[in-house]
């Protein structure tokens, strides 16, 4: 048996955690990445898989801010499902080779990658109007997370999900640390 130094521990993270440049213009809360989470994962010796951003790969970098309702179309769901299938194929490969996939970390509020909360209600594309709008944070997952969970369930896989809340980053990091220890 060949020996190497890999930790055999892995997490999957929303694309924008490692690349804030992928966010809708005006919505990035960090300069490049969310270092607090990256540092935690490094400290705990986790490998990181950066999930594709379905919004970026569907609508491009110059897309406007949309809510979960606006993205909830057959074409976008199909796009998310395709990404989810490819990702779960990758997860199965890791698991079959003795690597533990400990968590999937999304971004709360995201119409795609929100785990427990996503924005609903806004109908339009102007970023300034979006900030002033009456959109509400709904207690439901984003579309990509729904499709990913569905694909994981179809294949009999169970992986903890956690939504990183950028509005309370320190508390979120503490909560993720607890998940990774369990």
Structure description:
The protein is an alpha/beta fold. The protein has one domain (9-181). The chain is 42% helix and 15% strand. It is built from eight helices and six strands, in the order βααβαααββαβαβα. The protein has helices at residues 15-18, 35-43, 54-59, 68-71, 74-96, 127-132, 143-154, 169-181; strands at 9-13, 47-50, 100-107, 118-120, 136-138, 160-164. The strands form two sheets. The protein has a four-stranded parallel sheet with strand order 2-1-3-6, with helices on both faces. The protein has a two-stranded antiparallel ribbon with strand order 4-5. The longest helix has 23 residues, at 74-96. The model has no long low-confidence stretch (mean pLDDT 92).
With helices defined by DSSP (H or I, 4 residues minimum), what is the helix count? 8
- Sheet with the most strands, sense and barrel status: 4 strands, parallel
Count of extended strands? 6
Sheet with most strands: strand arrangement: 2-1-3-6
Helix and strand layout, with pairings?
Blueprint: E1 9-13, H1 15-18, H2 35-43, E2 47-50, H3 54-59, H4 68-71, H5 74-96, E3 100-107, E4 118-120, H6 127-132, E5 136-138, H7 143-154, E6 160-164, H8 169-181
Parallel strand pairs: 1-2, 1-3, 3-6
Antiparallel strand pairs: 4-5
Helix pairs in contact: 5-7
